[in-house]
């Protein structure tokens, strides 16, 4: 890296400059601070002197008034003894009033009797009203003089002293003198402008005063005229009154520097106190101060510049000579030619007085001669070294390439195990930089590759060095960097006199791990880490043989997760995998270590237990159900409770053949699943033939339904619903049909009960909703304006994943908002009234409508009709089919219609199969009609209807009912 260069003379100059600048700067700074502080101290002294002057003047006025009051009382006591003291005192006051007023500048004299009534008042007629009564009370009570300053529209010094008006009664004499003359005298003696400020609240008369709004003060006396008043106005705008009272301030007013200060006159409290404000022009003093500071700074700069110039003049020539020598020396070191030819470039003049630079020049000449001699020797030896270096470099490169490219541990060590050289592979394993390292410090073979038999290996190394054995070969497990390695070692003695050992190790860790992993994968499921079907079958065969040999009993528990395919389809396979892992983890903690717990595939699990009693089987089944009941997973912000269906077979009671036991436990599991109660269920296999036949049939139908779902072999037929009052087709009901292997249509009665028993109804409902959405979008794009009603089961209504799917459907297809009606059977809806009502309200918020199907055939409670927020009520067809011939059916249909419409719901009559029934329900006021007389279920839709419905719709065939 190239370093910066700065000449020595500049380094010295800069260093001395920094010192000079710092020293002179500090001297200048402290000198300035001292001058400013001296100025401030002088102003503080002047302010204190003036404050003492004002206080002295006030005290002088007070003493003068007290003397006058005493003199008047003395004159009264020398008067006619035939008169009362009161009368004599009054005469003395009146006779001397002119003298008091003009000579002694007394503005008012008041005499009060013992009853505190004024019986004599000279000068200032309104002064008696302004005096605070408390002052008189203080004089009467203390019987001693009281001196106060009072300010209203002006300020006065007030002295109240007790006087004797008869032999037993005392009165009060009050003398009043204005402070304005004192202010003028103060201004004359100090050459400063002075004013008296009083609070605005002190004015009790409408007088012409000057107001300072920001301070809430009036100026009752001020020297200096308009300029002083203007200065006070600016001062009040720039400073708070309380701040000015605490210290003096200097402001620039009309190009003058004015110093302002306040001196309080009477009682504390800034809101009621009169104050003397002093304004003094200090421009001359400040100018003198600033001039002195400028002179100080200029003198400091002159001294600094002079010192710098003198320093540079002293250093310039010697430093130039030194620079020339410094520039030649590097070239002298680099030049391989005639080094002595560089020396004449140095400016050298012999001096009588020698210094270090002259000695440096002479040393440079000696150095050049010596270097020239060494150059000749180096050239001769360099030629020979080049030839030998090329040979060694070729050999070294070949050896380095060979050692570093071998994927093996290669190192050399002495007989104590001290490593001398190692290759890249070894460096990588030991956490060192990947390069050949010679004599790495402090690395010992036995410390790096520790094993339990280090002592024996050290002896073997000594035997190898001593020639007692030709080679050393072994395998070793060693921990390197928190990872276990499996290494195969080969040690040989190098064929030279160094007694060094060449050690070569092959890392077999990856191969060993692959072998172990293959062995583990052969018996375990990679997702849940449980045993797989292969291990299960092998273990089951051994367990059956062991139970048969020892005549002991065991049990096989076979179960799967209910509605797992629905979770996979709606939430995705990652969510399904997470659920499988959670269930496997929880159940693994609930089984014994001796039990065989396996995942057979998909969501199917099996548990084999040996030596278990009948009570133990029941307890284990219940335990598995309880564990699963505590599992709650969150998928797509929806919490799900998990349930399982368990089939159980006992061996040897139910057989000893694996295939028979697996078939039987599968039947038992489907029987448990058929309960379909929303909880985990378990069933022990029954050998009863009829029961087994029913289970086989159910399992067969379940497989057919699952296959139809996978192949999308379900289709929808649509039956119109007629708006009686509008004489139009209002909407259509979607009815599901199943196609068998030959393409024949199977009615819902063949597969709906099995789907509900086996839990496939959720997948079927989702399939129907998805297909109905697809058809409705197709109808809307074709220009058809219609709505579709779809039947859903109670289990789907209670499934949070299904409700989340419905919400997402409206979000993805906003044009379908308000066009979907979900039909619930009355018996399904009342299984949980509150929950069903809440779910219906939530779905209505998404844009769906709801209808109660087959009302009247189930619980038939008017309470349920009121509680459910449905839009339609479908009257069961059992009351409509014989409406024309049954008075009871007529009354029942009328009652349902009246109550439903009274609650704000629309009514739909099912199984309207003839014109007479249609006319009767129209007479009763039913809103809608549905049946073969209106239209049959068909893949196509019917959107128009003409008058005379009975003549255009077909009559139903015998036995052809509306199957849902």
Judged by helices, strands and strand pairing, the structural class is alpha+beta
Query: Could you tell me the number of beta strands?
Result: 33
The N- and C-terminal alpha carbons lie at a distance of 89 Å
Strand order, largest beta sheet:
25-26-28-29-30-31-32-33
Radius of gyration: 60 Å
Largest sheet: 8 strands, mixed, barrel
Helix content: 40-55%
Unreliable sequence segments: 946-964
- Average pLDDT across residues? 79
Task: Quickly count the helices.
Answer: 30
Work out the strand percent. 15-25%
How would you sum up the global shape?
A: flat
Description:
It is a single chain. Helices cover 49% and strands 21% of the residues. It has 30 helices and 33 strands. Helix 1 packs across helix 2, helix 16 crosses helix 17 and helix 20 crosses helix 21. It is flat and about 155 Å long.
Q: Could you write a compact summary of the structure shown?
A:
The protein is an alpha+beta fold. It contains 30 helices and 33 strands.
Overview features:
30 helices; eight-stranded mixed barrel; 964 residues; disordered C terminus; single chain; alpha+beta
Structural topology:
Elements: H1 8-77, H2 85-95, H3 97-103, E1 108-112, E2 118-122, H4 127-130, H5 133-142, E3 146-151, E4 155-164, E5 170-178, H6 180-190, E6 193-199, E7 210-212, E8 217-222, H7 225-238, H8 241-246, E9 249-253, E10 256-264, E11 275-281, H9 283-334, H10 356-405, E12 409-413, E13 419-422, H11 424-429, E14 437-438, H12 445-448, H13 454-466, E15 471-480, E16 483-493, E17 501-507, H14 509-521, H15 533-550, E18 554-561, H16 564-571, H17 573-588, E19 596-601, E20 604-610, H18 614-629, E21 632-635, E22 638-641, E23 644-651, H19 658-673, E24 681-684, H20 689-711, E25 714-723, E26 728-739, E27 745-746, H21 748-758, H22 761-781, E28 788-791, H23 794-797, H24 800-812, E29 820-825, H25 826-829, H26 833-846, E30 849-855, H27 862-867, E31 872-875, H28 887-902, E32 906-909, H29 915-924, E33 928-929, H30 949-952
Parallel strand pairs: 23-24, 26-28, 28-29, 29-30, 30-31, 31-32, 32-33
Antiparallel strand pairs: 1-2, 1-5, 3-4, 4-5, 6-8, 6-11, 7-8, 9-10, 10-11, 12-13, 12-17, 13-14, 15-16, 16-17, 18-20, 18-23, 19-20, 21-22, 25-26, 25-33, 26-27
Helix pairs in contact: 1-2, 1-9, 9-10, 16-17, 19-20, 20-21
């Amino acid at each position: 890296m190239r370093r910066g260069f700065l000449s020595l003379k500049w380094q010295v100059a800069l260093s001395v400059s920094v010192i000079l600048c710092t020293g002179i700067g500090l001297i200048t700074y402290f000198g300035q601070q001292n001058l400013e502080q001296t100025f401030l101290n002088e102003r503080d002294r002047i302010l204190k002197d003036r404050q003492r002057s004002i206080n002295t003047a006030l005290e002088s006025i007070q003493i003068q008034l007290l003397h006058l009051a005493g003199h008047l009382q003395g004159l009264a006591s020398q008067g006619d003894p035939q008169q009362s003291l009161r009368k004599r005192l009054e005469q003395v006051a009146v006779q001397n009033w002119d003298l008091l007023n003009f000579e002694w500048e007394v503005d008012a004299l008041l005499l009060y009797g013992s009853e505190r009534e004024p019986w004599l008042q000279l000068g200032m007629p309104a002064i008696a009203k302004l005096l605070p009564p408390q002052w008189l009370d203080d004089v009467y009570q203390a019987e001693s003089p009281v001196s106060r300053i009072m300010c209203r529209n002006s300020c006065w010094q007030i002295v109240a002293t007790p006087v004797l008006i008869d032999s037993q009664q005392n009165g009060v004499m009050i003398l009043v003198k204005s402070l304005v003359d004192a202010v003028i005298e103060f201004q004359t003696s100090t050459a400063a402008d002075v004013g008296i400020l009083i609070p605005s609240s002190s004015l009790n008369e409408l007088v012409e005063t000057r107001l300072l709004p920001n301070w809430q003060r009036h100026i009752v006396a001020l020297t200096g005229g308009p300029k002083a008043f203007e200065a006070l106005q600016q001062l009040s705008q720039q400073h708070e009154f309380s701040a000015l009272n605490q210290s003096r301030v200097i402001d620039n007013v009309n190009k003058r520097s004015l110093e302002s200060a306040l001196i309080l006159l009477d009682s504390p409290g800034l809101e009621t106190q009169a104050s003397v404000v002093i304004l003094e022009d200090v421009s001359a003093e400040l100018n003198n101060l600033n001039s002195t500071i400028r002179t100080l700074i200029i003198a400091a700069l002159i001294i600094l510049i002079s010192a710098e110039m003198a320093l540079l003049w002293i250093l310039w020539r010697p430093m130039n000579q030194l620079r020339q020598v410094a520039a030649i020396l590097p070239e002298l070191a680099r030049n391989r030619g005639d080094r002595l030819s560089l020396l004449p470039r140095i400016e050298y003049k012999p001096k009588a007085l020698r210094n270090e630079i002259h000695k440096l020049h002479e040393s440079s000449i000696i150095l050049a001669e010596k270097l020239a001699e060494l150059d000749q020797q180096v050239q001769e030896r360099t030629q020979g070294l080049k030839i030998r270096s090329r040979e060694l470099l070729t050999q070294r490169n070949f050896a380095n390439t060979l050692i570093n490219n071998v994927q093996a541990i290669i190192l050399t060590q002495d007989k104590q195990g001290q490593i001398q050289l190692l290759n890249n592979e070894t460096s990588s394993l030991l956490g060192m930089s990947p390069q050949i390292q010679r004599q790495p410090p402090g690395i010992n073979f036995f410390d790096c590759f520790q094993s339990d038999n280090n002592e024996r290996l050290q002896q073997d190394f000594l035997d190898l060095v001593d020639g007692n054995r030709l080679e050393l070969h072994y395998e070793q497990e060693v921990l390197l960097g928190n990872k276990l390695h499996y290494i195969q070692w080969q040690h040989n003695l190098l064929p030279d006199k160094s007694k060094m050992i060449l050690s070569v190790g092959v890392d077999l860790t990856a191969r060993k791990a692959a072998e172990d992993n293959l062995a583990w994968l052969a018996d375990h499921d990679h997702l849940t880490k449980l045993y797989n079907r292969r291990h299960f079958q092998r273990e089951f065969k051994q367990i059956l043989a062991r139970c048969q040999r020892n005549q002991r009993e065991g049990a096989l528990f076979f179960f799967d997760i209910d509605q797992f395919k629905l979770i996979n389809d709606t939430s995705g396979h990652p969510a399904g995998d997470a659920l499988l892992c959670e269930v496997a983890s929880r159940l693994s903690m609930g089984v014994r270590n001796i039990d065989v717990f396996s995942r057979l595939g998909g969501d199917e699990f099996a548990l084999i237990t040996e030596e278990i009693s009948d009570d133990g089987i029941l307890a284990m089944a219940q335990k598995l159900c309880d564990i699963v009941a505590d599992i709650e997973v969150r998928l797509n912000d929806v919490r799900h409770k998990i349930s399982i269906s368990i089939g159980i077979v006992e061996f040897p009671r139910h057989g000893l053949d694996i295939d028979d036991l697996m078939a039987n436990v599968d039947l038992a599991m489907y029987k448990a699943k058929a309960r379909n109660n929303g909880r985990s269920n378990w069933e022990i296999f029954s050998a009863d033939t009829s029961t087994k036949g029913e289970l086989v049939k159910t399992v067969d139908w379940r497989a057919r339904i699952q296959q139809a779902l996978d192949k999308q072999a379900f289709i929808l037929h649509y039956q119109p619903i007629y708006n009686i009052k509008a004489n139009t087709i209002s909407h259509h009901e979607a009815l599901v049909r199943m196609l068998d292997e030959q393409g024949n249509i199977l009615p819902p009665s063949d597969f709906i009960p099995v789907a509900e028993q086996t839990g496939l109804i959720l997948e079927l409902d989702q399939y129907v909703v998805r297909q109905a959405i697809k058809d409705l979008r197709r109808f809307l794009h074709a220009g058809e304006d219609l709505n579709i009603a779809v039947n859903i089961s109670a289990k789907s209504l209670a499934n949070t994943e299904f409700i989340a799917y419905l919400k997402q459907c409206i979000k993805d297809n906003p044009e379908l908002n308000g066009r979907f009606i979900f039909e619930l059977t009355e018996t399904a809806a009342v299984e949980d009234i509150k929950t069903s009502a809440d779910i219906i309200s939530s779905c209505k918020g998404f844009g769906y409508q709801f209808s109660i199907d087959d009302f009247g055939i189930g619980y038939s409670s008017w309470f349920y009709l009121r509680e459910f927020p449905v839009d339609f009520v479908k009257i069961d067809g059992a009351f409509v089919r014989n409406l024309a011939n049954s008075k009871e059916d007529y009354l029942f249909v009328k009652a349902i219609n009246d109550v439903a419409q009274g609650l704000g719901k629309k009514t739909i009559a099912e199984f309207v199969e003839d014109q007479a029934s249609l006319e009767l329900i129209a007479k009763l006021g039913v809103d809608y009609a549905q049946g073969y007389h209106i239209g049959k279920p068909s893949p196509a839709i019917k959107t128009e209807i003409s008058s005379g419905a009975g003549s255009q719709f077909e009559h139903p065939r015998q036995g052809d009912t509306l199957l849902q």
